[in-house]
Amino acid sequence: YASASPLMTAVAEHVLDTGLLLANNSPWGGRLCPPLVSVLDELPSTAPLPTLRTRMANERALGLSFIYAAQTWRQLVICYGEDEARAMFGLTNTIVVFGGGKDGEFYKEVSDLLGTTRVSRRSYNLHRGGWGSSFYGDDVPVLRPEEVRQLPERHALVLAENARPFVARLSRCIEGR
């Protein structure tokens, strides 16, 4: 992809600039109708748009939406730098994480992002009068980093805005109906 990357970046920027121009001149209050969804697969390799963060922040309200994919967090950091990659990550409405990677720090951050849940525990104690029990609550991660990394094939963790995270089972479009 390296040799085609500058050309793909220029084409993608041109398409997005055209979409922005159409939105600004649209009779629907400065919004594209129907909206333009830009799907940027293998973003860091094929078309590392230098304006993506700004576009994500400003053009969503104009009917221009973005779906981007990267194989690893490190790819985004190498391509955009840590601050820019984090800003893009923060502007992303829905994050889909697949298992199988080897970036433990990324999976730890995802686990931290998921937060904790309270689990009831019961303990038993032997004392002079016999057995006794007590209940207590324990905060545990929703998913530990290794559980995120070990998501089964064709499953993905979905974090969408303020909704509860969930693990989705996926199927390939070329299999079945």
Radius of gyration from CA coordinates: 22 Å
Query: Beta fraction of the residues?
Result: 25-35%
Please tell me what the overall shape is: elongated
What structural class do helix, strand and pairing data support? alpha+beta
Low-confidence regions: none
- N-to-C series of helices and strands: HEHHEHHEHEEHEE
Number of helices: 7
What does this entry look like structurally?
With 177 residues, the protein is of the alpha+beta class. The protein is built from seven helices and seven strands, in the order H-E-H-H-E-H-H-E-H-E-E-H-E-E. It has a three-stranded antiparallel β-sheet with strand order 3-6-7, with no helix packed on it. The protein has a two-stranded parallel ribbon with strand order 1-2. Helix 3 runs parallel beside helix 5 and helix 4 packs across helix 5. The radius of gyration is 22 Å and the shape is elongated. The two termini are 33 Å apart.
Nutshell version of this structure?
By secondary structure, the protein is α+β, with helices and mostly antiparallel strands. It has seven helices and seven strands. Helix content is 37%, strand content 28%.
